[in-house]
Write a structure and sequence with these properties.
By secondary structure, the chain is of the alpha/beta class. It is built from three helices and four strands. Helices cover 24% and strands 16% of the residues. The chain has a four-stranded mixed β-sheet with strand order 1-2-3-4.
Length: 111
């Protein structure tokens, strides 16, 4: 069952300076969430992070295999875990939207 009211997590810089710091904040939210409840984050982006990269689907999957997670960037981008992508109907065969791009790993999986 999917709970419609999401938990919100601030993922921006500041306060976060690293991917691990953001992942810790998401992990804390997941621990208090029932299975299926959405976790939404905002403010994430590579600028200002020590790693200078975005979160990945795989990192979010590790933290929240039973909760859909979507982290909005400070620009027009988002990173989602496998549960969220499944609910959105996005998979390796989903074409890029007319005004955007689904980033994919080397095997073609959305990441």
């Amino acid at each position: 069952m999917t709970t419609l009211m999401p938990l919100m997590v601030h993922c921006g810089t500041p306060p976060h300076k690293s991917i691990n710091s953001i992942l810790d904040a998401i992990s804390a939210a997941v621990k208090g969430a029932p299975k299926g409840q959405w976790i939404w984050g905002w403010g994430a982006g590579p600028a200002g992070l020590e790693e200078n990269r975005r979160l990945t689907r795989w990192e979010l999957d590790e933290l929240a295999p039973d909760n859909p997670v979507c982290i909005l960037s400070i620009v027009h981008a988002a990173t989602a875990n496998s549960a969220a992508l499944k609910l959105a109907g996005i998979n390796r065969y989903t074409p890029d939207p007319a005004t955007g791009k689904i980033l994919r790993d080397d095997s073609g999986e959305p990441n």
